[in-house]
């Protein structure tokens, strides 16, 4: 009898500690890490972008069928909201639900620009709400909301576009493609200005670089075009996109840009895995410890079988799978176009660090802008006032 009671007690204690380790501890960790960041007032994340950000939860312009039905959650936007302990996530991002970004692009920065450069009809139904349209929808719902409530709240915006845009430009003449990228970035920042003006105060924007799309497993499956030429074109365009994005971001004066170096992050994940596989270690010891992801080429969901899968290693047992992988946490990619949820979560941690440290990429521009405003104010003062000010300060 006594042994049974003691056994019960031990089992009970065991369950208690499991609950503590599995449930209470993670909560404590999250709360202690970012408690101060968004405390005090209500906070929300407003999300603009494509399928990388689209949570599949819609308030306005709800799609007939959910294009994100097969997405792997959490996405980086959901994980970022959780990290920042935000009260709500307003999703304006839109996706095509397709894995073929050439035929069915996700939301673009500017549909008109892409359609113009690629000779397509901008009113084609395959084009989703672009950044401009997403911002209009957001402003419309804000206006309705503002009349009802005037809550003090902190807003963080996420703006992630570009993968579909660049995908559309791949294979064009260099000059046209570059023009397309330049115009798209111009639109992107014009829309950020629209948001800043509507908010009437400095905004906070998480803005990721785009990853090198040639690493996405589906890239090599494009039906048309000679692969090496396409690859070269894509690498150049991604570089161009990120350079133009940085250049424009550096000069933005509507608020803080938290620039998320997604491309660098992705390369690090790939490098780590390759060094481990080859068995070399660098001075940091990278390559010795197990990589974050052991599988960085094949996605968890098998790619549709097509004729050529060059340059994949066809001897790889993994590329024969027809079922989803058994351990998604080892996979960098979820499907041919998207990162796995573990990758999304890691990316969100990087973003949360930027936001919590107020890591501002355009700090110089903001300071200069402030100074200019101050000087302008001085100049606008009546000369008499200015003199009085100076005599006051001297006495
Ligand atoms: C989700 O996956 C199923 C099975 O692969 C597929 O038939 C369906 O079209 C997919 N839905 C979307 C929205 O991609
Ligand atoms: C479309 O392209 C042409 C020539 O490249 C240019 O003149 C025109 O302004 C463009 N239109 C739009 C809406 O961007
Ligand atoms: C909200 O108020 C503004 C002006 O205060 C007005 O123009 C707008 O129509 C209002 N919106 C709604 C939905 O009532
Ligand atoms: C994968 O497919 C190739 C070619 O069809 C075949 O030779 C190989 O044995 C398969 N590997 C596995 C693990 O099934
Ligand atoms: C972040 O830093 C910028 C630039 O110094 C500043 O203008 C802004 O108020 C800061 N934002 C927060 C939330 O502290």
Task: Give a structural overview.
With 395 residues, the chain is of the alpha/beta class. It has a domain of 252 residues: SGNH hydrolase (Rossmann fold, 3-Layer(aba) Sandwich), CATH 3.40.50.1110. It is 47% helix and 8% strand. The protein contains 11 helices and 5 strands, in the order αβαβααβααβαβαααα. Strand 1, helix 2 and strand 2 form a beta-alpha-beta unit. Helix 4 runs parallel beside helix 6 and helix 5 crosses helix 7. The longest helix has 33 residues. It starts with a helix and ends with a helix. The site of one 2-acetamido-2-deoxy-beta-D-glucopyranose has 4 residues, from loops.
Gyration radius, rounded:
25 Å
Ligand names:
2-acetamido-2-deoxy-beta-D-glucopyranose
Number of contiguous helices: 11
Strand-and-helix sequence, N→C?
HEHEHHEHHEHEHHHH
Can you tell me the CATH class of the domain at 38-263 and 341-366?
Alpha Beta
Mean pLDDT: 84
Helix content: 40-55%
Oligomerization state of this entry?
single chain
Query: Per the principal axes of the C-alpha atoms, what is the gross shape?
Result: globular
CATH superfamily of the domain at 38-263 and 341-366: SGNH hydrolase
State which percent range the strand residues make up.
Answer: 5-15%
Number of strands: 5
CATH architecture of the domain at 38-263 and 341-366: 3-Layer(aba) Sandwich
Largest sheet, described in full?
5 strands, parallel
Instruction: Name the strands of the widest sheet in spatial order.
Output: 2-1-3-4-5
**End-to-end gap:** 93 Å
Low-confidence stretches: 24-33, 308-315, 386-395
Biased composition (Basic and acidic residues): 371-385
Pfam families: Lipase_GDSL (PF00657)
Region (Disordered): 371-395
Transmembrane segments: 7-25
């Amino acid at each position: 009898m006594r042994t049974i009671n003691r056994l019960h007690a031990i089992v009970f204690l065991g369950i208690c500690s499991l609950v503590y380790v599995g449930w209470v501890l993670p909560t404590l960790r999250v709360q202690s890490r970012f408690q101060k960041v968004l405390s005090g007032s209500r906070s929300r994340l407003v999300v603009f972008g494509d399928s990388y950000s689209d949570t599949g939860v819609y308030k306005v312009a709800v799609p007939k069928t959910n294009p994100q039905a097969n997405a792997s959650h959490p996405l980086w936007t959901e994980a970022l909201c959780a990290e920042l302990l935000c009260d709500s996530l307003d999703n304006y991002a839109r996706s095509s639900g397709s894995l073929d970004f050439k035929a069915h692009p996700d939301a673009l920065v500017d549909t008109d620009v892409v359609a113009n450069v690629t000779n397509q009809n901008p009113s084609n139904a395959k084009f989703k709400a672009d950044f401009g349209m997403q911002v209009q929808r957001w402003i419309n719902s804000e206006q309705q909301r503002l009349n009802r409530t005037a809550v003090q709240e902190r807003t963080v915006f996420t703006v992630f576009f570009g993968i579909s845009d660049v995908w559309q430009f791949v294979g064009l003449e260099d000059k046209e493609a570059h023009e397309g990228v330049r115009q798209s970035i111009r639109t992107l920042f014009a829309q950020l200005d629209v948001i800043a003006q509507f908010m009437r105060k400095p905004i906070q924007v998480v803005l990721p670089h785009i990853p090198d799309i040639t690493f996405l497993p589906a890239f090599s499956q494009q039906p048309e075009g000679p692969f090496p030429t396409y690859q070269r074109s894509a690498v150049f365009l991604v570089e161009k996109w990120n350079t133009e994005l940085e250049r424009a971001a550096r000069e933005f004066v509507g608020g803080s840009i938290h620039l998320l170096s997604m491309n660098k992050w992705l390369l690090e994940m790939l490098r780590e895995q390759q060094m481990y596989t080859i068995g070399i270690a660098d001075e940091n010891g990278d390559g010795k410890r197990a990589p974050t992801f052991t599988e960085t080429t094949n996605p968890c969901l098998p790619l549709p079988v097509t004729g050529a899968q060059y340059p994949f290693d066809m001897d790889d047992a993994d590329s024969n799978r027809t079922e989803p992988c058994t351990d998604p946490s080892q996979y960098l990619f979820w499907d041919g176009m998207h990162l796995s949820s573990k990758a999304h979560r890691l990316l969100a941690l990087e973003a949360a660090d930027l936001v919590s440290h107020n890591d501002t990429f355009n700090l110089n521009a903001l300071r200069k802008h402030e100074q200019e405003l101050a000087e302008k104010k001085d100049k606008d003062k009546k000369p008499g006032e200015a003199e009085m000010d100076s005599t006051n300060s001297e006495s």
